[in-house]
Amino acid sequence: MEIASVFEDIEEGVALQPATWRLVVDEMPRSGAANMAVDQAIAEACVAGESLPTLRFYQWKPPAVSLGRHQPIDEIDHKAAAAHGYEIVRRPTGGRAILHTDEFTYAVAAPLSEPRLAGGIMDSYLNISNALLAGLHALGVAADKAPGTTRAGADVSAACFEVPSAYEITLGGRKLMGSAQSRRAGYALQHGSLPLVGDITRLIDVLLLEPPTADALRQELAARACTLAMALGVPDESPQVAFAAVCAAMRQGFEQTLALTFRLSPLTPAELRRSAVLIREQFANPAWTDYR
Prior knowledge:
Layout: E1 19-25, H1 32-47, E2 54-58, E3 64-67, H2 78-84, E4 87-90, E5 98-100, E6 103-111, H3 121-139, E7 144-145, E8 169-171, E9 174-184, E10 187-195, H4 211-224, H5 228-232, H6 243-258, E11 260-264, H7 269-283, H8 286-289
Parallel strand pairs: 1-2, 1-11, 3-4
Antiparallel strand pairs: 2-6, 3-5, 6-10, 7-8, 8-9, 9-10
Helix pairs in contact: 1-7, 3-6
């Protein structure tokens, strides 16, 4: 079940009892296939009762274009991606293409019985959005979230950051964070991206578009999306937009908003073994990636 398929309205302000989750902060960036495999391995471990519900912060190296679970790979210019040094990977969640570079990425994984993820898919999406907002406010960003009634139209482009969906994070109407959630096998997995610095339109370079269409989409994306540095009005080199600073603020946002205490710990040996299998059999496997 994907976030875009749910059309229910929900109430805010659900009371949550204090709980302890695990926090994984990956200091070293991983490849696209490895990042997606780790997210799924964590979710499987959580539903099996082998790991606590987990919040993970991570980065990507080399840069990667991630496709939504059902997005045709034919929308990507493979030669252009290779020329830029970008990997191509398919997410287990829905949505459109994202270029993962110079960004902060989060993932939340937990059994569906976890109160913060229980109920309808939009209930959990709202809970997580509120935590992300609190983290951004701690960084000094006067961000907001798109209304729950917001839906992407049928004519949306291949670029994820073109328009926000329900409860996604915005600043002055411009999309700042994109997220996607999947529910299967008894777990919920949600991950999302916060572009920190750089050219927000770089993804357009690797979409398979005619030049006039690409130019128009580049202008539209520049007007409709922004990076954290742009949101704060600081240079890309500012320590305010460093990965570590964002991790600290987002941890605070989740703790305060969702009544959480975090236990900082690395991936378990079992999660690492499972992620290695998932890399080989799924996320680095052309049979998974080359959906058309």
